[in-house]
Amino acid sequence: MKSTEEQQNKKEIIRKKMIERQSEARTVRKIVFIVTITLFLFVGGAILGGFLYVTSALKPVDPDSDKTTPVEIPIGSSVTSIANILESENIIKDAKIFKYYIKFKNESGFQAGQYDLSPSMTLDQIIESLKTGKVMRDVAFKMTVPEGLWLEDIAGIIAKEVDLTQEEVFETLNDPEFISKMMESYPFLLTDDILNEAVKYPLEGYLFPATYSFYEKEQTVESIVREMLSKTSDVLLGYQGLMEERQLTVHETLTMASLIEEEATELVDRHAISSVFYNRMEIGMALQTDPTVAYAIGEHKERTLYEHTEVDSPYNTYQVPGLPPGPIANAGVMSIEAALNPEETGYLYFLATPEGQVLFSETLQEHNAKKAEHITNQN
């Protein structure tokens, strides 16, 4: 009898445990269901919220607005800076959405200027305005700075626009306090390299050659220089990856570019000249480029004589190996690109002919033969 009762008790215990497990399983399933639904609603809500936000950001800030706001887009502004300006002026709702929209539509070619924009404008209307350059005001004046100029030459160009003498502008460009102020504003561009005691003028080579449009007649040396430094910074930011790849600093890039700029002609392949300089530095050979001698002397020379190459200066690449302490002129985009993309050659010499051609050689014997043919025989 006991055995039968024990068996029945065990069966009852097992039955109760099974009921408990079934109950627990139902509870777990309920919890899992609730959690799943909650996560689904949360993720769905986040997606829906994001979708609604993006959709809203793509619409005008105020479709019914009839007011306009003057918005200035400085020279050299990037897409990011333009988007930030538009958001700060309440012309668009979100700078990031605007930037992604521009990338999605593959838009480019935005122009600097003073625009008359409204919160009622669509993103496409804003983009079109920025591309066509419909500005509120006429250009007060334009200032053109050619490639290959020394800083003191640029000072003369600026002086004409600010009613100062060339000497006064040049003094400002080399004032330590002014330079420090510019370095704070352009940390990527102006590094401690320009403060090297061997550098002749800190801002030499940093004022980009271009035509600058100004919408206010009254300008200062600082306002003009800021436009030029902004342009240089924007140009070099586009080559940041290449500079890192070649392990070149901004200062070294502009220095090499300035040598190429001063040696190049309209017909020459700057990338080949660049290769000569790199090839020479690789084997420890002096660059021996005449424009550095002229810069060391402080006077442009039609011909560089032997006595000129004896000048005692860190810029004299006949006497000092490697790059000079800093740029010797302002270089344009073509020379910057050549400085970062030298042609693969075995050239160690190049010769500029009176006709404007540049002849390249791998050996001194070959170089001297070309020199005798094109230079010596004509004297």
Brief account:
By secondary structure, the protein is mainly alpha-helical. It is built from 14 helices and 6 strands.
| Number of structural units classed as domains | 3
What is the radius of gyration? 34 Å
Mean residue pLDDT = 86
- Largest β-sheet summary: 2 strands, antiparallel
Question: Beta-strand percentage?
Answer: 5-15%
Broad shape: elongated
Strand order of the largest sheet: 1-2
Key traits:
mainly alpha, Dna Ligase, domain 1, two-stranded antiparallel ribbon, 6 strands
Give an account of the 3D structure.
With 379 residues, the protein is mostly helical. It has three domains: 69-132, Endolytic murein transglycosylase (Dna Ligase, domain 1), CATH 3.30.1490; 141-237, no CATH class; 247-378, no CATH class. 51% of the residues lie in helices and 7% in strands. The chain contains 14 helices and six strands. It has helices spanning 2-57, 79-88, 95-105, 123-132, 151-162, 166-173, 176-185, 221-237, 240-245, 250-263, 270-282, 290-297, 333-340, 364-374; strands spanning 69-73, 113-117, 141-144, 211-214, 349-352, 358-361. It has a two-stranded antiparallel sheet with strand order 1-2. Strand 5 (349-352) and strand 6 (358-361) form a beta hairpin. Helix 2 (79-88) crosses helix 3 and helix 5 crosses helix 6. It is elongated, with a radius of gyration of 34 Å. The protein starts with a helix and ends in a 5-residue tail after the last helix. The mean pLDDT is 86. It catalyses: a peptidoglycan chain = a peptidoglycan chain with N-acetyl-1,6-anhydromuramyl-[peptide] at the reducing end + a peptidoglycan chain with N-acetylglucosamine at the non-reducing end. Belongs to the transglycosylase MltG family. This is Endolytic murein transglycosylase.
